[in-house]
Design a protein that fits this description.
The protein contains five helices and seven strands. The protein has 165 residues and is α+β, with helices and mostly antiparallel strands. The chain has one domain: Aminopeptidase (3-Layer(aba) Sandwich), CATH 3.40.630. 24% of the residues are buried. Bound molecules: coenzyme A.
C-alpha cells in the first residue's frame, strides 16, 4: 500500500519533474503552454521547493509506491489562524481513482488538527472539472470565485473551496 511521507531535500528535483509531467497533461486545453511554463517556474523550480522545506508553516508531502514517488501535495498556513490551505495536490495520471487523493486529504486533516486549525481551503481552476468533482466528494464546497493576477499578463481563474471536517 502506498504511504504518505514528508518530502526531503533529496526529493526536490524529482518532484519538480513530476509536477511538469502532471501539469502538461492536466492543464493542456485549460491554460496556455506559456502560462503552464510560467507557473511551473514560479512554484516548482527546485530552488523554490527547497526553500519551502525549511518553512515551518509549509508541509510538502509525497506519496510513495514501490520506492517511487507517484504524487505529492503541499499544505500551508494562511493569514487566518484557523485555516490550512491545500496549495498543491497532484497524482500521476496512471494512479488516479485509487483513493490516493482521499489519502492526502486525510493527511491534511490530521496536520490541521495537530496545529489546531479547523478549516481546510483550496483553490481549483474553474475548468478542472475532474478535480472539482473529487473535492466535492471529499466534502469541500465552492465558496466563491478566486481570480488572481499572477503577473506577466497571466491570471488564475479559480474557485475557492472550503471544508470544515
Ligand atoms: C484530483 C485528484 C487529486 C483526485 O485524486 P484521485 O486519487 O484520482 O481521486 P480519488 O480516488 O481519491 O477519488 C475520490 C472521488 O473523487 C471523484 N473523482 C476523482 N477523480 C475523478 C474524475 N477524474 N472524474 C470524476 N470524478 C472523479 C470520484 O467520485 C471518486 O470516487 P470514486 O472513484 O469512488 O467514484 C487527482 O485526480 C489528480 O491528481 N488530478 C490531476 C491533478 C489535479 O488536477 N490536481 C488538482 C489541482 S487543484
Amino acid at each position: 500500500m502506498p504511504e504518505i511521507l514528508s518530502i526531503s531535500h533529496h526529493d526536490v528535483t524529482g518532484i519538480s519533474s513530476l509536477a511538469r509531467e502532471i501539469w502538461f497533461r492536466q492543464y493542456q486545453g485549460i491554460l496556455s503552454n506559456d502560462q503552464i511554463n510560467y507557473m511551473l517556474a514560479q512554484r516548482y523550480c527546485p530552488r523554490v521547493i527547497d526553500a519551502q522545506l525549511d518553512d515551518e508553516k509549509i508541509w510538502w508531502r509525497k506519496l510513495v509506491s514501490d520506492g517511487g514517488i507517484i504524487g505529492f501535495s503541499c499544505y500551508m498556513r494562511t493569514m487566518h489562524a484557523a485555516e490550512l490551505k491545500i496549495d498543491k495536490l497532484y497524482i500521476r495520471h496512471d494512479h488516479h481513482r485509487k483513493g490516493y487523493g482521499g489519502m492526502f486529504i486525510n493527511d491534511a486533516i490530521k496536520i490541521m488538527h495537530r496545529i489546531t486549525c479547523s478549516t481546510l481551503i483550496l483553490t481549483v481552476n474553474k475548468q478542472n472539472h475532474s478535480a472539482i468533482h473529487a473535492y466535492q466528494r471529499y466534502g469541500f464546497k465552492i465558496m466563491c470565485d478566486s481570480v488572481v493576477d499572477i503577473g506577466s499578463g497571466f491570471f488564475m481563474n479559480d474557485y475557492l473551496m472550503v471544508m470544515t471536517p
